[in-house]
Amino acid sequence: MCGRFALSMSPGDLVEEFKITMGFDGPALPANWNVTPTSPVYAIRDLPGSSADSDRELFTPSWGLIAPWSKDQASALKSQSNAINARIESVHEKPTFRSAFRSRRCIIPVTGYYEWATENGPFAPKQPFYIHRKDNALLAIAGLYESWIDPASKKEVTTASIITREAVGGLATIHHRMPVFLTEDKWSAWMGTSRLRESEVDQYLALLNSPEPAAGLEFHPVNPAVNSALTSGAELIKPIELGEPETLF
Prior knowledge:
By secondary structure, the chain is of the alpha+beta class. It has helices at 11-17, 73-82, 98-103, 184-190, 201-208, and strands at 4-7, 32-35, 43-46, 56-59, 62-63, 85-87, 105-110, 112-116, 128-133, 139-149, 156-166, 177-179, 217-221. The chain is globular.
């Protein structure tokens, strides 16, 4: 799974990175090295009817998909907490995600993300690790977004979820899941706005299955201070030394 991530890029950086010529006029999110579920995040999508990269939009959904049938704020919050990640193996079938998978696909940019070691690996259980690109370039995660109308306020709430897959390589020594990353050559196809026909579902699932899903990534252990949602500074991603039994290899 992916339960925390870092994003230190500005809207201007993202507009340039994703070639969004429309710019961005929303409120900028502060740099945050500990983005938590239900927090606002940046995401990129194609506008309905768009046929060119210039029609991409930068928007700020909150993290965790609210199922459209949620009846009130309590059920919406529960849905968000349970739907921060969508599994690639079932995203096209699960009721919470299948409509968004067919029509509302986006990219969620991150600087890096955190994962906590499980008892099945060589590291102490619950030891946090920071995972990022070796060249420190941005990571583009495949995502989904959805809209929900709050019955009390009548306001539209936009939310998003990250798609995950089975972890591979060194990442599998930490945790059994990892986000699905998209290379630039796949961005336009993934964010297309035409509703998928049943015959196209397998094609889009294949788009998510990169032959080298962890290419260019590296990881290092970090301070457990990241466990607290109240901490958000850049010091959270600094490497730490582990004790002798848990050293990296």
